[in-house]
Amino acid sequence: MVTRSTIMDTNSFRAEHAAALDSDTKILTDKRGEVLGESYRLFYRNPVHLVKGEGQYLWDANGTKYLDVYNNVASIGHCHPRVIDAVTAQMQLLNTHTRYLHENILNYSENILKTMPSEVNRAMYMCTGSEANDLAIRVAREYTGGMGIIVSQESYHGTSELTSGCSPALGTGQALATTTRCVPAPDQYRVEHADMGDWFAAQIQTQIDDMKAKGIKFAGFLADSIFSSDGVMSHPIGFLKKAVDVVHKNGGVFIADEVQPGFARTGDAFWGFERHGVVPDIVTTGKPMGNGIPVSGLFAKHDVLSAFSDQIPYFNTFGGNPVSMAAAQAVLDVIHDENLQQHSYEVGALLKKELTELMKKHECIGDVRGAGLFIGFELADRASKTPNKRLALNVIEELRNQHHILTSVAGPHGNVLKLRPPLAFQMSDIDWLVGALDKTLSNPKMFD
């Protein structure tokens, strides 16, 4: 039996697609199969061979230009010159680990903590979001004395032993930890309840009660505040607060996984959790903070982190190294200097408006939701809300092949287009994307 991962296999190249490839692409895919482990996946039935990036655009080996509507890792745009300059300058001076003194890590920490609630006042650094979430779980367990972690039903939080055990999006081939509990996604499109905050808080309490009944002490709730892998659950603004109140009432901590909604992406706020008026106990970030340079962070309340750090020394060899910190500082400066939070708000609002207009023409669009430059475009039967995964997969292939737009899908049914471009995405790019979606959904072949 072949197991499938909802986050890895929904939009992916598989062996049965090889016969349709051109010779150059087939050589590369064959070589990958020979030298890389079988766990790796490529996007698309016809994989893209990329050789260059600039801002919100990418070019393949044949010189074809693509609009990138998916890559948040290059958060401020591919090959941003200020990041390149900062990394190059620091690399020419020094790159070493964090057991020597260096100004970069201290200056950046002071600057990034200014963007946080005042209660969140300590920083630690790693290289990946998986490492940050792994450490966050360890800190939460040390602080609370508990083991139980609650996540949303389709969440993804990393690939380490601890984080994969809290990442149901990795699929049935990756068993969840026995101390992990899942709550249904806060899906305003499908959940009919007068108060989403009350509904979601009740789901959290139910799982805490289940843990207690089975002798598992609750440690914390780990969530990406826009629930991106669940299909982008952005509204109503503020619904998360009641859930966090329940977490604290039961002695747990709230870990805000900001790898995807952080760094001005939602437009409403610099951090995704800010939209909901909550103060996390721990905040984690990933590679978008360095525009793709391997760097991640954990930011925490002093008392929460002290329960761990007063007992256990922690060392991540190159987490927070001078080069990575130079990249992270450049990203922070660009977000400020280019006013990218306001840019994300304004461009995202217009994009969402134009996508919503398409609903008048195409009955197959079930819902358009999101915040800033993070939008979920759900393809489903309008009357029954039945997800249309086949259509979604056909659409992203058509966007890639005929319109040269790169995106992917999310959600448990693989039917939500996850529109999450670099923040360099401009008003002028909206016509390219919306026009391509209109033409694609007007093509009867998409429904075959």
UniProtKB/TrEMBL annotation:
Superkingdom of this protein's organism: Bacteria
Pfam families: Aminotran_3 (PF00202)
InterPro entries: Aminotrans_3, Aminotrans_3_PPA_site, PyrdxlP-dep_Trfase, PyrdxlP-dep_Trfase_major, PyrdxlP-dep_Trfase_small
This protein's record includes keyword Lipid metabolism: no
Gene3D superfamilies tied to this protein: Aspartate Aminotransferase, domain 1 (3.90.1150.10), Type I PLP-dependent aspartate aminotransferase-like (Major domain) (3.40.640.10)
MF term (GO), any: transaminase activity
Co-factor requirement: pyridoxal 5'-phosphate
Keyword terms of this UniProt record: Pyridoxal phosphate
Span of the signal peptide: none
Protein family membership: Belongs to the class-III pyridoxal-phosphate-dependent aminotransferase family.
Designated name of the protein: 4-aminobutyrate transaminase
Annotated organism of origin: Acinetobacter nectaris CIP 110549
